[in-house]
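Researcher: Next sequence.
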Amino acid sequence: MKLNGKIVFAVALVASAMLVSCGKKQQQTPSATFKTMKVGRQDVTLETKYSATIRGRQDVDIYPQVGGTLKQICVTEGQLVRKGQTLFVIDQVPYQAALNTAQAALKAAQASEATAAMNYESKKKLFAEKVISDFDLQATYNTLLTAKAQVAQAEAQVTNARNSLSYTVVTAPTNGVVGTLPYRQGTLVGAQMPQPLTTVSDNSQMWVYFSISERDLLSLVRKSGSLSEAIKNMPEVTLTLIDGSKYDKTGRVESVSGVVNASTGSVQLRAVFDNENGILHSGSTGNVIIPTIHENVLVVPATAAVQTQDRFRVFIVGSDSIANGKVISVNEQKSGNVFIVTEGLEGGEEIVAEGAGMVKEGQKVK
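Model: Next structure:
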């Protein structure tokens, strides 16, 4: 009886160990319920985002062409101005005096010219009567030419003085918005000042600058056949602002820089956006989004792909409901909540669509 008791105890111990072992096995790979899907093909639009800088179509720095005391500031910061509108007035007194002096010198020169002309006409008569020599006549004519030259010089001085006087009234070179006004009335200003009087920005349309890689540019050119065709074929682009909101108007890429930045390997592009409502401001930043359409491609949800370093893996559910991992290659960019699969799947496979990160290799999936 003792021997039989030991045998029974040993059998019970082995059975218990087997049950524990089975229990551990079941705990390691328990069956679970996951949402699955069949991999298929569809058209997908990828959106590529690029950092961008916003500039007015024209940002004109306003410098005075003459020096003097700033007498009047006729605009305020942020004011909308029209081309030719007065912005500043510089002290006109010295320039008006210079103009008066030049005009007086012109009158004196004109009087001298008239006198020289009268003398020449008189000498011509005397020469005809053989009273004076040819030398005397020529000398009188030379005096007349000198007087004419003095008149021309005086006229040029009047023009310069009048221009200098006109430059004391600084006007807007284009329609736009007035920038900051760093100088105040009474400040001595001049053409060589370090900072402009202000900047007038034409904000009716905005230029948005962004950069793409040289590789992307080559891809566009090869696809279209030429750079001009690549620009023409580029889709309309959208703009997100610094607060994350999307600008309500689309833009068009209208130019590509002909020079590759050697330090970054990128090329600058310029897109134009209408700005009738004045939301965009020169100097702001944002992001340009360029859509790219991929037709008839294999896609999987982002929730179906598990990333480990630079590799992606999905779990294929076989006919026996067992999940087996499969390494796939995907497009570098993610479009919304899906990945474009470039290698690893043929289409038609059933995969775990959600919660792939919780699936274990060889696990039974309900």
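Model: Residues 5-17, 19-28 have pLDDT under 50 and may be disordered. The longest helix spans residues 93-128.
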